[in-house]
Structures are given as structure tokens and as C-alpha cells.
Amino acid sequence: MEIVNATGMTAGYTMGVEPSGRELLVVVVKGTFAIPQDGGTAELLAVQRPLITADTFTGAPGYSAPAEEVDFAPRKLRCDVLVSGSAHAPHGEPAQRIAVGVRLGGWTKVFAVVGDRHWEAGLSGCRASAPLPFMTKAITYDVAFGGVDERHEDPARHAAYMANPVGRGWHHNLQARFVDGAPLPNTEELGRPVDAPDGVFAPMALGPLGRGWSGRLPHAGTYDQDWIDNTFPFLPADFRDDYYQAAPADQQIAYPLGGEEMALANLTPEGHTRFSLPSRDVPVTFFHRKGGHEETRAVLDTIAIHADQGFMTLAWRSTVPLRKNMFEISSILAGTKSRGW
Q: Model-level pTM greater than 0.90?
């Protein structure tokens, strides 16, 4: 199969499958845009980033926060808004605590970033030490509330905070010898400080969730003996496409149409950065081997802001079900060619 890319961006295709076993043909077009500093519209860069073919992490896979997720999700029901970067203290002055936030159209997410601190455990319980001032602080799930508690000598007492097992600050065993001096998270909800090592607090970050974390795993379906005996290797019947959303639920929005204003607060050295999403129509045409064609409009379903590097990527996706297999499609056109072509 040939794909003709007339978008000026990066394009590729892959196969997907539904729980019914029906195969899908998935086309992804991804553009890399500069983040303007003058409030204008993001412009396409001369050098485009390639499509991501495997998940990446901030450290060891499975033991650190997801950094970027593979671009080839078969389908996304909503648009993921993802941000990687750092918090910057305003006015160039060290701060113990600041608010950071992202706004896109009418959607907003804001939380607090706090300087380094640790648990102080004593006879009266646990309390957080005073946070140290900072100028910049990286924001990932590695420094959000959560973690794995494996300090106890009895493995049966080990546990994990499955909303974010790579984080810090959470403890299952509350003896002072396990908790005292352990680090607290550097992020937390506004107005709801982390004040108990065994509490239930929302992990605050802006990147993708791990595939096996509690925010995504319930959508993956049931993999039991009945599935092994009667369904394998297909997806279980209760699998939901929501599983393909990499962002947490509060970072999933309706598909943007283009032109929406985006604002970043204390996520760049400038303090407040505003710009508009580009307005781009991304048609994808599928040409059938036996004649005829099907034209679709890809939807913008992934926005990834790389604030520290000054660029963002936008991914458009078009997914069509196949009657039999991918060989029924002879070629794909991403973008627009002349009628003469």
C-alpha cells in the first residue's frame, strides 16, 4: 500500500482491531509547530518530528513516568491535551509555591507546584517540612503524589498507589522508620495540600497516564479464563476505546476545530504565553483496489505541548473499518492534490 503525503507534515498508517475482530485502517498526520511568543498563530516548522512508534519514559520503562505515547492509537473519542515542561517562578524570583495552568478555549487545568520537602514523622504523627524555594521545577508524574511502598521487610506488606505508582509521598506502612525523611510530591491540587502519607490525593501532572494505572485500566476490559478460552487473541467484549486516551480525564476535550486560543501560565520563562492553534483541514482519501474512493476528514485528537523546547505537535487521525483486510485499499492520499493528479 502506498501513502501519498501532501500535507507538509508527517504521515503514516497502521492497522487496528475492534473487539468484534473487525480490522481498521488508521492514518495519522502529525505536524510540528513553533510556539509563538507574540500571541500569534503557531506556524509549521521546517523540520518535522517523526511519528512515535513506541512509548517513551522519563527513566526506566514501567518504573518512571510516561513521556510520550505511540502515535498509532486506533481511535480516540476525544482530544488529548498533553504538556511536558517545567514550572517557572514568576518575576525571576525564587518561590516556595506557585500555580501553573493551561487553558485552551473554555477548558482549563490549574494546580500548585511546590518546592522540595519531606515527611517529618514523630510521636504526634506526620507533617510536611517547609518547602525549599525554587526557580524551575520539572513537572512529571515522577514528582506527583503516589508511589510504591516496598520498605517493609515483609513483602506481603508492600503496596502501590495505582493512580500513580511512579510518584512520591504515598505510604502504606506508616511507621516513622519508613516515612521520616521520605520526599513529598512537588505538585498538588490547589486548596488541597498533601497532608497525610496514606491519604487519597489526585496526582497532578500534565503528561500521559501509564497504560496500567487505575485511570486507564478499567477501560481495557476483562482478561480472565473465559477470555483465554473463548476470545484470545482478540480484545475482550468489554474493551472500550476510552483506553486509547493517553491524557487523564480532566485533560480530554472535544475535538478542536482550529483557531482556539491557548494560554500557558508559569510554564515558560516569560510567565504567561498565549497563542492560537492553527486552522488546518486534513482530508484523507482511501482509494479502493477495485475502483472508487472514500474521502474522510481527519480529526485533531492529540495536542502535545513541549514548553521547554518551544514547540508543539498536533496529530490528526482518520480511522476506517475494512470489509476484509488492508489489501482492499491500494493507496492513501493525505492532504489535497490537484484534480489532474
A: yes
